[in-house]
Amino acid sequence: DIVMTQTPLSSPVTLGQPASISCRSSQSLVHSDGNTYLSWLQQRPGQPPRLLIYKISNRFSGVPDRFSGSGAGTDFTLKISRVEAEDVGVYYCMQATQFPQTFGQGTKVEIK
Amino acid sequence: QVQLVQSGAEVKKPGASVKVSCKASGYTFTSYGISWVRQAPGQGLEWMGWISAYNGNTNYAQKLQGRVTMTTDTSTSTAYMELRSLRSDDTAVYYCARASAAGTRDFGYWGQGTLVTVSS
Fold first, then answer.
1. How many beta-carbon pairs below 8 A join chains A and B?
2. Cβ atoms of residues A40 and A109 within 8 Å
3. How far apart (Å, rounded) are the C-alpha atoms in residues B22 and B3?
4. What's the confidence (pLDDT) of residue A1?
5. pLDDT of A38 over the 90 cut
6. Residues B57, B69 contacting (CB under 8 angstroms)
7. Interface mutation vs chain B, best among A44, A101, A103, most B CBs within 10 Å
8. Is residue B103 scored above 90 in pLDDT?
């Protein structure tokens, strides 16, 4: 199975400041079809996860443009340009290049 | 709009079975597979498996092989996940999810979650 490792596991940030989460996979996520199936999810307390980014850098419908994804191969990053109070929650990276689909451990974003 | 509505919370004894439903609406049910993901209390997300709503093909997490069965009923646009021989560590919120669009292999749409509690 592909292991997804996120850092940091906790990220206290000041409102209005940027935040960055790293995700590293144990093997390349480039699929034989040329796509890289790496997505980012946000989970607010008490809610189901919500898709933010798919295929490395594509924002899902309704996701604010302060969220951006980048990376390639085995190293990926989610950036929040200016953290808002509603961004508090746990963020997961997920790979779907290979079964079984696997998730990172989660990064908790909280306000300082 | 795409909606996935799951059945209500369940309390089961160890060794019992549970069957969770996920009713889809707002799209052609057979055009997308349904995945199941679970989350133990205070823990991260765990992929359980996937079923094609088109032909019923399945792919299960190895650790659940033999205990889990995923099915669909195309007449009611409903997916089901049955887990047998329940143990205390199966206590979790169970989610169904669907891709955001064809070929994206993500989880763009989620059910609201079903809490399954396994306790004697």
1. 64
2. no
3. 10
4. 96
5. yes
6. no
7. A101
8. no
